[in-house]
Write a structure and sequence with these properties.
The complex is a heterodimer of chains A (about 290) and B (about 500).
Chain A (H helix, E strand, L loop, with lengths): L6 E5 L6 H15 L3 E7 L19 H37 L6 E6 L2 H7 L4 E7 L16 H7 L4 E4 L8 E6 L3 H12 L7 E7 L5 H15 L3 E7 L3 H11 L4 E5 L5 H7 L2 H8 L4 E4 L1
Parallel strand pairs in A: 1-2, 1-4, 2-3, 4-5, 6-7, 6-9, 7-8, 9-10
Antiparallel strand pairs in A: 5-10
Chain B lengths: L6 H5 L2 H26 L3 H18 L7 E3 L1 H6 L1 H7 L1 H20 L11 H23 L4 H16 L12 H16 L28 H33 L5 H17 L5 E3 L1 H9 L5 H17 L1 H4 L4 H15 L3 H8 L2 H17 L2 H21 L2 E8 L4 E10 L4 H6 L9 E11 L2 H16 L3 E5 L1 H4 L13 H8 L3
Parallel strand pairs in B: 4-5, 5-6
Antiparallel strand pairs in B: 1-2, 3-4
Helix pairs in contact in B: 2-3, 2-12, 2-13, 2-15, 3-11, 3-13, 6-10, 6-11, 7-15, 7-17, 7-18, 8-9, 8-15, 9-15, 10-11, 10-12, 17-18
The chains are: A alpha/beta (about 290), B alpha/beta (about 500).
Chain lengths: ~290, ~500
């Protein structure tokens, strides 16, 4: 895998979490030594009509006039948003430079965030995004409307930031013995991101076999070296237990596989990832 | 697959779509009735068609927010079929039209639209506007002065009502026109023609019917000459309209899906007793202007139209034809590209000829497909003619070796082949001739034939002939252009020009 060209991509929108997103992405970029790119998209919502004229008639060249009017209106709005976007990016860039990134890339792009990300997916090493965008800024218990769909459609590690940055020292892997969880363990074992951190390997399960699986995973991680492993087996409701563990053990970041089930399963039974996204207060690194 | 659509296509603009759909439905009713009258069928045929086509294209069309229903372009093509063979054959032809359009969708013929130049599109809409206007003339000849007064008054209401403060922009002016004129006609008890005189209106929901035609070759022979142009015109107008809506809303659409959608919509219309239809330029513009963007607007337009005509049929019967004529004149004015008349002054002559020929042929034959065909053909010929000017031959003479060298630069193809041949001086007596083709492009077999001719002529005059760079020059002959699509490949072939 050619990781040299890949980038850490920070999705920023100027909301409260923008600084956290900047800091986390800068931290990751420095640790894995790849360039950092700051992305801001201007979504135009063309599916929504700006104004309505119900007079229902068409006159001479109304097609041309309508186009002209709509273009004029959108130009004004777009100019403002373009300006705002530039400011947001400039501030983020400044912050990233202060965090120690020598030359952060910036990109201002028109269009839907999800589509823009899908287009450059192959260049992304890690994506960093805030849990809430502008629309849900004040709703502490909500997550952004796009987060779910975004995580589902991108097959890259995604860090979801919830609060201001705190340099991760203790991290937790939510381990359930599943294929996705094993993959997560493998990725942690091979990535330079986690070197020198304390890693809690936590399993919430009723099964007896989980203990041995946990040990296997732990030894795999230990073999990778330079990472301190603490294992814990818990019982109860997974998302609640994990969040309690998070706060009692000062976990700074939680790593887990995401959306490993089919969409139908999730619609019927609810998705664990979604529950975690809603419940957690600490950054969540989702591995796919 | 066809049913898959994004949630935002349906629910991204609910309020705007509901309002716009309602406005469009109100405008669709007079149009559907008027186009049924053009085609020579009962108004219910056009109304059922409009309902069915609008609903189906809302569900599966490729362009959210575009309005499709019974249209004038299609109605004009079916006049003689209805006159000679009756409604049932029209329904059968409608089914076949749908089948052709679905096939076109799967063959991705939507991309052929790129051959239709801007001038042809302008000619198409102008011709359509003229035909819609002309179709109103029978309602305006041999009638009492009341009709003229009402039509003029109706147009006045349509264009002036929006300037009324507060309510002007929230009540569709065509609706005001129809209501006022109907009220006036009833109140004054005027003896003028009304919609009720034009044939049956729908009094029930549409029912599923298989056209009562014998399933044999004879039937096919009758309907095929109608179905093909119907399919072509339907797709042309639909794809043109889709492009217009794309531009207006700054979004993109799936043209091939639209072809399939139109086809299925026409099959649905044929089975529910409706005539063939397609997308409507005027109505789609009204929809966008009214704030319609999503699939919901088209769906609302269709459903609301049906509800209104089924439950208000007693009222609709009383609408005077003059009101309808006023609405249709508005549609005609709104469809015509008035800017194109001013553009005639500063557009190149070839462009003007293409536009005007398209209009002339359509107005003369009442067949938009023929007009577009003529326009595209002329466009291709003018283009070939222009490109043929991009060829010249330079020559130099080398005394010591008695050699005449010709260097050919530019495009050699069927149209410039004669010019190519005439560029050589066969009268000059030299012992050697060098023809350098390194900067020339041979586009077809005609150009190779012309070169052969030149070489043979020189040899007959006793000269030794050397041709340089034939391989490079003829790389452009091949039909598989896929390999040349990369910039560096194009540079290799076209380099130096």
């Amino acid at each position: 895998m050619n990781t040299n060209k890949k980038i850490v991509l920070a999705c920023i929108d100027g909301s409260a979490l923008t600084n956290a997103v900047c800091d986390y992405s800068a931290w990751i970029a420095q640790r894995v030594d790849v360039p950092l790119k700051l992305l801001h998209t201007i979504d135009h919502h063309h599916e929504k009509a700006a104004n309505t004229d119900l007079s229902g008639n068409i006159g001479m060249d109304s097609r041309e006039h309508l186009l002209e009017d709509m273009a004029d209106q959108e130009q004004e709005q777009s100019k403002i948003r373009l300006q705002q976007g530039k400011v947001v990016l400039a501030e983020a860039k400044e912050r990233a430079i202060q965090a120690g990134i020598t030359d952060p890339l910036t990109r201002l792009q028109h269009g839907n965030l999800l589509e823009s990300l899908s287009d450059i997916e192959q260049d992304i090493r890690v994506l960093v995004i805030g849990a809430r965008g502008k629309q849900h800024e004040d709703q502490e218990n909500e997550i952004g409307a796009k987060i779910d769909a975004l995580i589902r459609s991108l097959h890259r590690p995604i860090l979801v930031a919830y609060e201001a940055f705190k340099t991760p020292e203790q991290i937790m892997i939510a381990y359930d013995g599943s294929e996705a969880a094993d993959k997560a363990v493998d990725m942690v074992a091979t990535s330079p991101l986690y070197k020198g951190l304390v890693c809690h390997l936590v399993c919430v399960s009723k099964k007896d076999s989980s203990g041995t699986l946990l040990e296997q995973a732990a030894s795999k991680l230990r073999a990778a070296g330079d990472i301190e492993i603490i294992t814990a087996s818990l019982q109860g409701k997974a998302e609640e237990e994990l969040c309690t563990y998070q706060s009692t053990h000062n976990i700074d970041m939680t790593i887990m596989g995401a959306f490993s089930h089919t969409r139908l399963h999730d619609i019927l039974l609810g998705s664990f990832t979604h529950k975690m996204l809603l419940k957690t207060k600490k950054p969540l690194l989702l591995l796919r | 697959m066809l049913l898959l659509s994004k949630k935002q296509d349906w629910l991204g603009n609910v309020r705007g779509d509901l309002l716009a759909g309602t406005v469009v439905a109100l405008a669709l009713i007079p149009e559907a009735i008027a186009f049924s009258i053009i085609a020579g069928v009962d108004p219910k045929v056009g109304l059922y068609a409009s309902f069915c086509i609008a609903v189906i294209t809302a569900l599966i069309g490729g362009r959210p927010g575009m309005i499709s229903a019974a249209t004038g372009a299609m109605a004009l093509l079916m006049v003689t079929l209805v006159k000679d063979h009756g409604l049932q054959y029209l329904l059968a032809a409608t089914l076949l039209t749908g089948v052709f359009q679905i096939i076109a969708g799967y063959l991705k013929l939507g991309s052929l639209m790129s051959f239709i130049s801007r001038s042809v599109v302008t000619g198409f809409v102008n011709a359509l506007a003229i035909l819609i206007f002309m179709a109103q003339l029978p309602e305006l000849t041999n009638v009492s002065w009341h009709v003229y007064a009402m039509t003029a008054g109706g147009l006045g209401i349509i264009y002036l009502f929006p300037y009324v403060p507060f309510i002007g922009k929230s009540i569709p002016s065509p609706l005001v026109c129809i209501t006022v004129l109907s009220g006036l006609a009833v109140y004054l008890q005027l003896d003028i023609r009304t919609v009720g005189d034009m044939g049956e209106l729908p009094d029930t929901l549409p029912i599923f019917l298989w056209p009562e035609v014998p399933l044999n070759l004879e039937t096919l022979k009758i309907i095929l000459p109608y179905s093909l142009p119907l399919a072509v015109v339907g797709l042309l107008e639909s794809l043109m309209t889709a492009t217009i809506v794309d531009d207006l809303t700054d979004t993109s659409s799936d043209k091939n899906r639209e072809c399939k959608g139109q086809g299925i919509a026409n099959i649905g219309a044929g089975l529910l007793g409706g005539m063939a239809g397609c997308a409507m330029i005027g109505q789609s513009v009204i929809n966008v202007k009214s704030g319609g963007r999503g699939r919901l607007s088209t769906m609302v337009a269709g459903v609301f139209l049906l509800i209104m005509v089924v439950f208000l049929d007693e009222w609709i019967k009383q609408i005077p034809m003059a009101a309808l004529v006023a609405v249709m004149i508005m549609v005609s004015i709104g469809t015509f590209s008035w800017g194109s008349i001013i553009d005639l002054k500063h557009h190149p002559l070839s462009t003007n000829i293409i536009m005007l020929s398209t209009v002339t042929v359509v107005v003369w034959t009442h067949n938009l497909a023929l007009g577009v065909f003529v326009g595209v053909l002329l466009g291709a010929l003018f283009f070939a003619n222009k490109i043929s000017h991009f060829m010249y031959v330079e020559s130099s003479f080398d005394e010591p070796t008695d050699t005449r060298s010709y260097e050919v630069v530019g495009q050699v193809f069927f149209n410039s082949a004669d010019k190519f041949t005439n560029s050589f001086d066969f009268k000059e007596a030299v012992s050697k001739v060098v023809i350098d083709l390194q900067r020339a492009h041979f586009w077809d077999i005609s150009s190779v034939g012309a070169l052969d001719k030149v070489v043979i002529k020189f040899r007959r005059e006793g000269a030794e002939v050397e041709v340089i760079g034939l391989n490079e020059a003829s790389t452009t002959i091949i039909d598989r252009f896929g390999v040349h699509d990369k910039p560096e490949e194009i540079e290799k072939v076209m380099g130096g020009h």
